[in-house]
Design goal:
With 86 residues, chain A is mostly helical. Chain A has one domain (2-82). Chain A is 88% helix and 0% strand. Chain A contains two helices and no strands. Chain A has helices at residues 2-51, 57-82. In chain A, 0% of the residues are buried. Chain B has helices spanning 3-51, 54-80, 83-91, 95-102, 112-115, 118-126, 131-138, 148-155; strands at 243-244, 247-248. A two-stranded antiparallel ribbon of chain B has the order 1-2. The longest helix of chain B has 49 residues, at 3-51. Chain B starts with a helix and ends in a 5-residue tail after the last strand. Classes of the chains: A mainly alpha (86), B mainly alpha (253). At the A-B interface, α1 and α2 of A face α1 and α2 of B.
């Protein structure tokens, strides 16, 4: 009876060891797949950061748009006075 | 020791060894991940800091553009009336209906760029008193794209050429005595000058002379004079003669 119990425990341990190795392999595989993606993200982030240097030009555009608005309003006022209404 | 116990001990040792091996490898990968994230995070911070002021700037630009668009649309609506949606449609296809919705108007959008040629559109917009403009102002477009210039030619009929009656003289829309459409309003005082040649205002038109004006008294040349006569009756006011650079003209003396 005791022998059977020991053999059963041996079998259980073998199955447990196989399952454990399988699970640990999956964890390791997932962990090893992350660093390349992080490197890729770092490259993209650096490129995006460089591209966003042009955002400062928006301030110039903002000034231009304001000037254009003023010019259009002045021109529209002149047209309003020059052209007859419908 | 029985063989089962030895196998169990070996199995437990193998399990512990496998655990240690895989966990150490996983820990190494986690260190790599940590190092990679420490590189990525500052870059992400740069992106966040650079995109931070974009929203207010874009909002300001949008607000300016909306103000400009509204001003132009109101101006177009005021000057163009129902044609304004067609003008918008001709410039930006598909925007005419949106324009009407924005200004709370409804109706059919006629693409004036398609219906009219450019010259016809300009003529129609210039003269609503002309037949072409009047018909257009009341309803839908009166001309089609194929024969639109014919309609323009009908406005100002061309007379036949005297040398070759088979040809017509192209007649320009000159503003004459009784033009088809004149941009000028009729004069309030036709035939009368309200100002003289020098621009001075004329109070009242001089009465028509019934008899030829008496010649002014020849009082010693052109420059002096002044108080002529000195008789009993009040002298009639001297008629104004034309003055040249040398004084009165011979037939006025």
């Amino acid at each position: 009876m005791a022998d059977a119990a020991l053999w059963l425990m041996v079998i259980v341990l073998i199955v447990a060891a196989l399952l454990l190795v399988k699970l640990l392999q999956r964890i390791l595989k997932a962990a090893t797949s992350i660093p390349p993606k992080i490197d890729a993200i770092a490259g993209v982030a650096a490129a995006a950061s460089r591209d966003l240097d042009a955002v400062a030009v928006l301030l110039t555009t903002q000034g231009y748009i304001g000037s254009i608005r003023n010019s259009v309003l002045d021109y529209g006022g002149s047209l309003n006075a020059a052209l007859p209404d419908y | 020791m029985e063989i089962q116990v030895a196998i169990i001990i070996l199995l437990i040792a193998a399990i512990i060894g496998a655990l240690a091996l895989f966990l150490i490898a996983t820990i190494l990968q986690l260190f790599k991940i940590n190092a990679g994230l420490s590189v990525v995070l500052p870059l992400v911070g740069q992106i966040v800091s650079k995109t931070g002021p974009v929203n207010p700037v874009v909002d300001d630009i949008n607000a300016n553009l909306v103000v400009t668009r509204d001003a132009l649309e109101n101006l177009m609506l005021k000057k163009g009336g129902p044609d304004s949606a067609g003008l918008v449609e001709s410039l930006f296809p598909g925007e005419g209906a949106k324009f009407l919705r924005r200004v709370n108007r409804s109706g059919k959008v006629v693409n004036v760029g398609t219906v009219y040629t450019r010259g016809v559109g300009i003529l129609a917009s210039l003269g609503r008193g002309a037949p072409i403009g009047a018909a257009h102002a009341k309803g839908a477009a009166v001309r089609d794209a194929q024969y639109s210039t014919t309609e323009v030619a009908k406005l100002y009929p061309a007379p036949p050429d005297r040398r070759n009656p088979n040809l017509n003289i192209p007649k320009a829309p000159v503003i004459g005595k009784d033009p088809v459409h004149s941009p000028y309003e009729p004069a309030l005082t036709p035939g009368a000058r309200t100002r003289d040649a020098t621009g001075k205002k004329i109070e009242a038109p001089p009465p028509a002379p019934e008899a030829p004006a008496p010649a002014p008294a020849a009082s010693g040349g052109g420059g002096g004079g002044g108080g002529g006569g000195g008789g009993g009756a009040a002298p009639a006011p001297p008629a104004l003669g034309r003055l040249s650079g040398k004084g009165l003209r011979p037939w006025e003396r």
